[in-house]
Amino acid sequence: MTSTDLNRDDVTGDATTPKLAAIVYNPVKVDIDDLRDSVEAEQTAAGWPETLWFETSAEDPGQGPARKAIEAGATLIIVAGGDGTVRAVAEAVHGTDCALALLPSGTGNLLARNLQLPLDDTRQALHIAFAGQDKVIDVCMIDIERADRSVDRHAYLVMAGLGLDAKMLANTDDALKAKAGWLAYVKALIAVGKDDSELRFRYRLNGQPEKSLRAHTIMIGNCGSLPASIELIPDAALDDGAFDVVVLKPEGLGGWVQIVSKVIWENGVLSRTKFGRKLRTGDVDALNYATGTELVLRLHGSEEIELDGDGFGTAVALKTWMDAGSLTLRVPTDDE
Question: What are the chain's domains?
């Protein structure tokens, strides 16, 4: 890890809004030499002081470096890495006065996709970081209970999932993912696609009476766009103070046809126009939606769980809730 020492008294800008950026980067995902040149050019053009640099590691994917950046006086943290790095840094940054900017460098780049940020233009992403405007979004918090009854707390920005998507991620070959990107997920999807096991769980949404349910997959989304222009949750918004719960309950091939039709055709095509949105149907038997701010769920047994596209082991229960308006993101200005 490298960093540049800077006295807060030397920061340029007005007295009420000091400017100091830090890069938290994943060395596996980023060409650090090329990135340094681009950062220097953009920080100079924007009149910012020298940027601080913090490296993640396998043992600390972002929380520690982000905290060090904040302690060093950073008012903006630019995350250079994949979805896991973004999630880890946001876990430390949310609830502070520090803003977050994205330099997408992974396979999925889920949050950047939902914000319609540039995915493969480093200079443009850095220009947004140094010269963009702030957008306040919600953060989902989750307590995951393990089989040994221990509980660990995390934040997530895009989606949490139990069932097919979590099993798929657990079966994804990391080496193949690095070489072939989303083809690795396709291979993993095929591997678990024949799994017809169900999730059995009890749940309480928004403090309502407890209910029982059997389902193939359950996902809790803070936003709803996935790669390949798939709109899993077309009405989800990062700043609406609520999450959307999606439950997949396919019964045979017909159920999967319902799901594909709903997600690909209705959500992905019809929802793009005002007229098309009027033609959308409600829930179908195989795919149900709900909205909430708190969900408590207990499973019949241990199940794989994922957060923002990363596997998080197995869970026997969870509690997830919204921390509304707790994270500031840097986005393009209105005239860009």
Answer: 8-131 (3.40.50.10330), 140-323 (2.60.200.40)
